[in-house]
Structure formats: structure tokens, C-alpha cells
Amino acid sequence: MRRIAVLTSGGDAPGMNAAVRAVVRAADARGIEPYGVRDGFAGLIQGRIEPMGARSVSGILHLGGTVLGTARSPQFRTTEGRREALTHLDRAEIEGLVVIGGDGSFRGADALSREGHVRVAGIPGTIDNDLSGTDFTLGFDTAVNTALELIDRIRDTAASHQRLFFVEVMGRKSGWLALYCGLAGGATEALVPERPTDIPLLRQRVLHSFELGKRFCIVVVAEGDDAGGAYSVAERVAEGTDLDYRVTTLGHVQRGGPPNMRDRILGALLGDAAVTALAEGADRVMVGLRRGEIVRTPLERTWTHIDRIPEDLLELMDRLAR
Ligand code: ADP
Q1: For 237-292, what is each residue's pLDDT tens digit?
Q2: CATH at residue 250
Q3: Which of 40, 83, 279, 280 could covalently link to 9 via disulfide, CB atoms 3.0 to 4.6 Å apart?
């Protein structure tokens, strides 16, 4: 393999830059020429492919977001769009493409490889942690810690006023972030899309915890919970009670910021593993880390198979919230 390109796609996640740096330098170390694509698949369709080198990724390891840029590209969902992208890749003589993103990006990458001559490897980059084939995705750990820091601040004020707080975190389809924030943040409950929310039961639990003498009560709500967002849940829980509650939506602050140690190391490991996979002739695989081991999973499995959130952790939170 002579040339490899790397792009970031879908929602940005802390650690993407660490992975880009690792791909570029691991390729360079193997004598493979590294290239970067601007703004994900949208940039690929426009042919924005640039040569990179070890020095071009200096000083980005600690930066959040993605220096390559990312974009949603409806055009890439079409064969015509992908044909355009393949023409640019052929012209630049790129033989391998590393795609850092989520399952949507992997669907695109998979189609691209099936329709052309380029081999693809995926690196799981999303704060949602909703990809099968890796224990954790790039950005999840940092996002949880960012949300936790804010939840800790909310807890200070909740405890001072003996108040109930509903905190909405990201996760349209996945409750990983809410679950980890809830467990690590000492929440009374985490409402996740994967489990139906029982409002009367939640009301009872909240009232009971104040009766037990708790000074604060935090309910973490994933934005995609079946009972609606945090505002709607809060209104319904407080109905018919004199609960004094506040609602906070953490929103986009959860996405950015410098990657923590874990996401930097994960970026380094997976960036290197993606280059190794392509150099060894692998195609349409995602590299991941499971129980400390690098594993390769067929890209297709990332959208045909979903890792459920661990029910035992939800139960543990229930047990500890008393
Ligand atoms: P994520 O990768 O984080 O899941 P998206 O779902 O937004 O993010 O996907 C990122 C990009 O991947 C989309 O803008 C689109 O260009 C491409 N993509 C998503 N789904 C498909 C698909 N089924 N076929 C081809 N390309 C797709």
C-alpha cells in the first residue's frame, strides 16, 4: 500500500484529532504516504484531498473537535455522489481510506469500498458509545467527564436548596452517556431510551428520597428518552406535588473540549491499528478495543448489531440511590 487518506465524519468527538495524528504518523512510519480529506465525505466528493506529513499533525493531539473538519453529506448517500468521490481517490492514487465516525459514516465507507478500488477501515468516533465491536468509542469518556463536572456543580446548588434537578444529556437513541453520568454522578435515576420510563414510579422514588432526608435529587435524562426531554419529564413528575424543581439541558458543551487521557490513548491505539489493518490487506473493518485487545469487526456489524447498555449498571444505580 502506497497511499492512505484519513477523514472525520458525522458528529465531532474529542480524540478524533489524536486518531488523525496517529493515522498520519503510523502511515509515515511504515513508509506509506498519508493524505487528509477536508470536511468528511462532502470534501471527498469535492476532491479536497491534501498530502499530510508527520509535521502537519503537530500540536493537535490535545485539541477537541476535528482539525480536518466534518460535515453531513446527503450526496454521499447516492451512488452518483460516491462515484464522484471514487474518481478523486483514484486520481490521487489513494488505496486505503480511514474513516473516523459513527455507524452512518461506516455505512458510507462500506458502500464506497464495494463500489470502487479503495479499501476502508473505520475508527469508532462518537460520544454516544453506541457501536458494537469496541468497549468504548472515541470521545465517550471525555464527554461523560465533561457532563459530570457540570452535574457536580448542579449538585452543589441542589443540595444547598434541597432541590430536585432534571439534567438532560445527549443520546438520541442511546443511553450510555445518561447511564454513566447517572451512576458516576450519584443520580436518583437515569432515564434512557432503551428502557420505558414510568412517570408515577419515578415521582414516588423522588418523593421517597426526600422523605429519607436526602438534600438533593438528580434525575439524568437522555435527550431521546421515550417520555420526552427533561422539561416534559419534569413537568409530569412534579404534577400534583409541591416539588421545587429545576431543569438544565447540557447541550453542545458535552461535545467539545480537550480529550482526556483515555481518549488520547484510544486515538493513538486505534489510529495505528487502522493503518496496520489496511497495510495487512484488511477491508471494510472497524478497529476497536475490547478488554484491552485490538479487535477488527466487519463494518456491517456496526449497524446490524447494537450493544445494549448494561442493565446491571442501571440496577446498580437503583440500588445505590437511597
Ligand atoms: P455518524 O457517522 O456519526 O453516525 P451520520 O449518520 O450523520 O453520522 O453519517 C455521516 C455521513 O455518512 C452522512 O452525512 C452521509 O454522508 C454518510 N452516510 C450515512 N448513512 C449512509 C448510508 N446509509 N449510505 C451512504 N452514506 C451514508
Answers
A1: 999 999 999 999 999 999 999 999 999 999 999 999 999 999 999 999 999 999 99
A2: 3.40.50.460
A3: 40
Ligand 1 contact, 126 CB (< 6 A): yes
Burial-class residue 294 by CB neighbours within 10 Å (0-12, 13-18, 19+).
middle
Return the H-helix or E-strand segment holding 10. Answer: none
What's residue 306's pLDDT? 84
Mean pLDDT within 41-50 = 98
Atom of ligand 1 nearest to the CA of 72: 14
CATH number of the domain enclosing 117? 3.40.50.450
Domain that residue 180 falls in: 141-255
Q: Is 303 in the pocket of ligand 1 (CB under 6 A)?
A: no
Per-residue pLDDT of 154-213, as tens digits, reads 988 888 888 899 999 999 999 999 999 999 999 999 999 999 999 999 999 999 989 988
For ligand 1, atom 14: residue with the closest CA: 72
Number of domains in the chain: 2
103 lines ligand 1 (CB under 6 A): yes
Adjacency order of strands within the sheet including 96-101: 49-51, 33-37, 3-8, 96-101, 119-124, 285-290, 293-298
Choosing from 28, 103, 128, 263, the catalytic residue is: 128
Which residue is closest in CA terms to ligand 1's atom 8?
10
